[in-house]
Design a protein that fits this description.
L,D-transpeptidase catalytic domain-like; five-stranded mixed beta sheet; about 20% strand; signal; alpha+beta
């Protein structure tokens, strides 16, 4: 009997244990990942709660070391409120970025100043900062005087040309009545006067190189031809106006701004200026040259 009673008690205990285990398995709290497989796989609970191992941009990361726990009895609920914004306070706007497509050159302010003095190329702000208006004005200036590339950048060549033109003193030319072609050999500029008034503003030129210096003095145009052949140098000279021996005005046959070379005494002109000088000139027109080209 004792042995039989012991067996009955052990069987009852096994039933109770099995019923308890089944209850835990069906508990929805034991399946936080919603997979139906009891414990959630590693990382699944993070997806449900939105937690992530790496903080997204602009999100403050949490400290890796947890703060020490305080005793419940010593902890008082603490209410934190967001700080009130300061009355009337404004945050300064960031410095505006340069939106122009033109690159700013190292002579930006100087070129702006010279273009403002020269006029005729558009509105420029003399502040040393490139703008769309400055860019357009510098490009127009570069295109007018065949400065390459005409990209709106205030580089050394643009600075040099603008400075020479802006500092040309037209009163140095001894111009009387009629038409006078004036050449400043020092600044390598030329302009035209009629009856004491400027009728063609100063433009760039290139005169004789070392060993072929163009002489200063006053002369008269004595021969003109739309295209003259140069026997010594085997080249055509467009819009030829001779005023001193074999020296005269003509359109340049090379890049005018190549300062390492020069003419053999002639006064080289850009195409636009050569055409204009031809239109204004005639046999007998006066030519006055002052100064001396540097390096000759």
């Amino acid at each position: 009997m004792r042995h039989r009673g012991f067996i009955i008690r052990m069987a009852a205990l096994a039933v109770v244990t099995l019923v308890g285990a089944g209850g835990c398995a069906l508990d929805p709290q034991a399946d936080p990942g919603g997979t139906g497989g009891g414990l959630a796989p590693v990382g699944n609970a993070e997806q449900v709660t939105g937690a992530s191992g790496v903080a997204p941009p602009d999100q403050l990361t949490q400290p890796t070391t947890p703060a020490p726990k305080l005793k419940a009895a010593a902890t008082t609920p603490r209410v934190t409120t967001a700080p009130k914004p300061e009355s009337g306070r404004r945050f300064a706007n960031p410095t505006p970025q340069n939106k122009t497509r033109c690159e700013q050159g190292e002579y930006q302010r100087e070129v702006e100043g010279y273009l403002a003095r020269l006029g005729g190329f558009g509105t420029v702000s003399v502040n040393g900062w490139q703008s769309d208006a400055d860019c357009a004005a510098i490009k127009k200036f570069q295109q007018r005087y065949d400065i390459r590339p005409a990209a709106g950048r205030a580089g050394p060549l643009t600075y040099d040309v603008a400075k020479r033109l802006a500092n040309t003193d037209t009163s140095r030319c001894n111009a009387g009545s009629g038409t006078t072609f004036c050449v400043d050999l020092t600044r390598q500029t030329t302009w035209v006067m009629r009856d004491g008034k400027v009728v063609a503003k100063p433009t760039v030129t290139r005169t004789g190189m070392a060993g072929y210096a163009t002489p200063a003095g006053t002369y008269k145009i004595n021969l003109r031809a739309l295209k003259e052949w140069s026997d010594p140098y085997d080249v055509w000279l467009p819009y030829w106006q001779r005023f001193n021996g074999g020296i005269g005005f003509h359109e340049t046959t090379t890049y005018l701004h190549n300062a390492s070379i020069g003419s053999h005494g002639c006064v080289n002109l850009l195409h636009t200026d050569a055409v204009r000088w031809w239109e204004l000139g005639s046999v007998g027109s006066r030519v006055t040259l002052v100064g001396r080209r540097p390096g000759t």
